[in-house]
Specification:
By secondary structure, the protein is mainly β. It has strands at 5-15, 18-29, 36-43, 48-50, 58-65, 75-81, 86-93, 97-101, 108-113, 117-125.
């Protein structure tokens, strides 16, 4: 089979006279083997690695900060982990979501800033 993975993204800004939209829809990619790992985890202000279960080669991942806070600047950072440090590449404010293509051998991690909370994430086999 081919084109089992479908990705659609839209980001839009309307701020005064500044308007910009980025769209990438209908993107399709092949998945070499079936596999998905989804989880809801608690995130603290310490670095926590994120399991990818039985996934042998990470493909795409989706992340969502499940915080229902109505104010504040707290966020969750997502990044790669080298065994010592997290290399943050994603900032999820309350309620925010992100979809990213991954390096197949990545070790994922999360860290809370300003509070603890929960995230939902899903990793698809490449």
């Amino acid at each position: 089979m081919a084109n089992e993975v479908s990705v659609s993204l839209t980001v839009a800004v309307a701020n005064g006279n500044h308007n910009e939209t980025f769209q990438a829809s209908g993107l399709r990619f092949s998945q070499a083997a079936q596999g998905v790992h989804a989880q809801i985890v608690n995130v603290t202000t310490n670095v926590s690695t994120l399991s990818i279960g039985a996934i042998t080669a990470a493909g795409y991942a989706g992340f969502r900060n499940l915080s229902t806070a109505t104010s504040g600047t707290a966020y969750v950072a997502i990044g790669s982990y080298d065994g010592t440090n997290i290399q943050e590449f994603c900032k999820l404010a309350r309620g925010a979501a992100a979809v990213v293509p991954l390096v197949p051998t990545v070790t994922l991690a999360a860290k809370g800033y300003g509070t603890t909370g929960k995230i939902r994430y899903v990793v698809f086999q490449e």
